[in-house]
Design goal:
Blueprint: E1 17-21, E2 24-28, E3 38-40, E4 71-81, E5 87-94, E6 100-107, E7 127-134, E8 140-146, E9 152-159, E10 165-171, E11 192-199, E12 204-211, E13 217-224, E14 230-236, E15 257-264, E16 269-276, E17 282-289, E18 295-301, E19 324-330, E20 337-343, E21 349-356, E22 360-367, E23 389-396, E24 402-408, E25 414-421, E26 426-433, E27 460-467, E28 473-479, E29 485-493, E30 496-503, E31 523-533
Antiparallel strand pairs: 1-2, 2-3, 4-31, 5-6, 6-7, 7-8, 9-10, 10-11, 11-12, 13-14, 14-15, 15-16, 17-18, 18-19, 19-20, 21-22, 22-23, 23-24, 25-26, 26-27, 27-28, 29-30, 30-31
Amino acid sequence: MSLKTNRSGKKIFSASVIIILFSILLLIQINSVDTYSLAFNNTYEISKTNAVNGADCESYKDNIEVTNINSSVIPVFSSYFGGKDTDSVNSVSIGKKNNLTAITGVTQSEDFPLTENNQKKRAGNIDGFIALINSNSKKLLYSGFIGGKGSDKPVSSAFNNEGNLYIAGYTDSDDFFTTKDALQKNNRGKWDIFLVKININNFETEYSTLIGGSSSDVLHDITIDSNNNLYLTGTTESRDFPVTKGAFQEKITGKRDAFLMKINPEENIIVYCTFFGGVSDDYSEAVGIDSELNAYITGYTYSSKTRSLPVKNEIFGPSTFSYDSYIAAFNPDGSDLIYSTYIGGGGGDRAKGIAVTEKRVHIAGYTYSDDLFVKNAFQNNFSVGNGSEGFLTCLNKEGTEIIYSTYFGGENDDFIHAIKSDNRGNIIIAGETKSENIFSSKKYDIERIPDEKRLKNNSDAFIAVFQEDSGSMNSAILIQGNDYDVIYDVDGYNGKLITAGMTKSDDIDGTEPVQKSNAGSYDGLITEYIIADK
């Protein structure tokens, strides 16, 4: 273990921001004095003594300022998950009432890790899977396939208030299993949406339905409100998609439109379903709900150039580029917009996730715009040249004001794939980066795996924790193996943070792992951390 000194020769020994390289573990404190780096070989050591409150440091690449560092992220658990072929964990959900962690994703592996009494062979080329892990013991309780003879892709999951689990995705299987009370029993188009409920007491399928029209329908996100109603969002090409009478937009206006659907599972009915889009292609990537049961969707639209996306009380107009991000808020019965606005610049912009809190709405994604609107920014400038940079934008709930908006990235491509809020005032973003300097600068050096030990053009996974009120970054994590690493989803609750993703690296050391090593080409990757306030 080595301790660095600052320019005055003073030693610094306290940790707040943790950068995790699973071959090398590093802890970094940014404060009013200077920085240090502690290197360990595959061990976890956390010091919370003599912690110093963060103060403004010199700007990173002249455009990033880190302030108010006030929490530590402690690694608890990491594991591979998969077989000899390609596997990916696409979503993760923390059970707030049942001590369970649910992961879902896709697999092409014949030897995928399954628990007893489950279908032992994949039915199609790409099958979905669901796995449940005990949050305390880290024991794999259940692992099983979801799907038919075609391709089946679970992309989102959520626990309801009783602790049972819903999984949603899309399928082209014509033999996808549905229950007797399904809203739709047969696949009507090339791709249809599926919605499955798992009873966590016996791990059996309690409900399964297909949803869709005669063309392709793709789901991207699901969430559940305080009354156990389900909200689904994605993109559809089906003109006969099951929209409801009186919905905000009853007819599709382009080749592909976004959709928002609310389902009451107790009555087994579609409460409302609406299209949302202009004359070009429109995509919804994520959905969030507030305490008043207003629904918010975000994604990206190619209707910006024709200015045909439905807008109301917009903060920004469309850019001149071909696609922009957007956010749209709907009233509780889905009959009208509360507001809808473009969010973008002169390049392409893609919002990938949304986090709705009591007073604010946060969206995150990635952008190719060097003129994106910034305010109270963690990073003011676009620093990648012609590539992509992450962005995080926070609005008040009414959609009348941008609270803060920031770039997030380094000198190479950076992608934010997920954003979540927890119940402790943290906003968590996650994704992948090709930037060597995403958390470092000439002044604040971070020891990295030497380039000669890594494959070129690979990505590293990252997580960053922001303070909701101020928009400052509290903590940051970098997962850096010797090959491709990415995080697709993240969830947080009661100081716990869990990620889901994929890796091609074979040198990530597991902590209490379900699976110790990479079994194939690409394996799923699960990691868990504790966010500890100082």
